[in-house]
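Case study 2.
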Amino acid sequence: MDVGAFVQENKRWLIGCAIGALVWLIASAIVGSLYDVQAATAEQAGLVRSSKSAEVYTRDALAAANEEAEKLAAERQRLQESLGFVPSAKYQLAGHGDANQYLFQVGRELKERVLNDANERNVEISDKDVSWPVPTGVDEIRGVLFGLELLDEVATRLFAAHDAVREQQPEAMALRGIRSLKLEERRGQRSVSGRRRGEVDLRDLVTQERINFTFEGDEATFALFLEACQKPGRTLAIESWTLTPPAKRGDPCQLKGSLLGIAFKPAAEGGQ
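Prediction:
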């Protein structure tokens, strides 16, 4: 399989991932509308009086509002199922003692495993090529732990693609090198602008971390890796990717891009 064939077979999936930011703007609008509709429903049911009018709405209007709320909730559920990544217990703080110590332990084990797995496959990599920011405070530690799980998943799926290609063609280049596999600084992902009245902030509803990567290898391996990013409940949403062909025959291609891990917060935590 080459990247061209993969693009043709998975065009809709890749387009959806490539415009991930737009999807989240749409999701924000959907969630915001859901809250607005639910508020309107309460008013229409007579539970809350509108500050603008004391008019009691008809049953037909109430039924229409309820139907709209159900449709929006269903759409949010669809987005969650197709784009969401459910973190495992290993990469959460609950039940693991001191936050800083646990982060250090998990990070050390992850880096050692990635480096060992790469070396076993003769994949070029150095210690500095796998990195994440140093967090301050428990909230940031939680975010970095989530990011470490994403790094773990990226490496696991990348090596699996390498192994699959080598199994079919033992002499294939497969994965040549990991030049960068990094969790982005959180402050680079977040806007400091204030929230407008009635605006829904996605940070109240989801935890989102971004992984930036640069790999070298052949097209077949990268096609399998990109395909493996789509997995219900464990999706790595591809935000962007660029494949640079080799400068000369026998050289590796370069795959560079970024992906998102999006974990939906529980209802109570997300304020639903």
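The two ends are 44 Å apart (CA to CA).
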